[in-house]
Structure formats: structure tokens, C-alpha cells
Amino acid sequence: MTILPMTMSDKTDGPGNDASLLTKTKTKTERPPLYKVMLLNDDYTPMEFVVHVLERFFGLNHAQAFDIMLTVHKKGLAVVGVFSFEVAETKVAQVMDFARRHQHPLQCTMEKE
Ligand code: TYC
Known about the structure:
This protein is α+β, with helices and mostly antiparallel strands.
């Protein structure tokens, strides 16, 4: 009869508790990335339609919506909100679909912050 020494992987202190696997401790919790949602200017979409979009899909009051619409009109684009990937994707899709249904060329895009 031969007696062999036990290796680390033989020494367990219960099911799923192999002693050699107990060193992997998670030390950091990273926050998920955020995405800027932007509206782009064009020459055809009516100002009131853009104001309505900002109120309806981004929860802005009329004064806030009017200000952001004017910023887009003057500067070419503006960030209208910052969201998780899934929420940003949904907002962009909702705005693009709403604009298409009303036959306006309004463009809404997202970009990693
Ligand atoms: N430039 C448009 C106009 O003069 C208004 C407008 C504002 C269009 C913002 C798009 O994202 C936009 N009617």
C-alpha cells in the first residue's frame, strides 16, 4: 500500500469551497458606462415639434425644452440627457420613430460619455 500527500485541490472544507479557490476576492464595483443622447439641428423640423419631443420623451418642462431646442437651432446640436445604454437606446429609437411618423427629418443620436 502507498500513501500519497494530499494536494491543495484535494483539501476541501465543504462543497464548493476548494481552498485553492478562496483567494479571488472582488475589490472593485465599476459603474456602468453612461451615454449622452443628442439632438441634431436641421432646416425643416418645426421648432414646436422639437419642443414637444423634449417634453414628451425627456421629461423637460416647456421652458427647459424651449431653451434646449434653441441651443440645438443655434449651435447645431445639444446633449438632451445622459442615460444607461439601454435607456439611451430606447430614447433614440422613440424620438427617431416619432419624427419619422410625422415626416420630419429630426435626428437623435447617442455617444458614450
Ligand atoms: N432649425 C429648425 C427650424 O428653424 C428648428 C430645429 C431645432 C430643428 C432643433 C431641429 O433639433 C432641432 N425650424
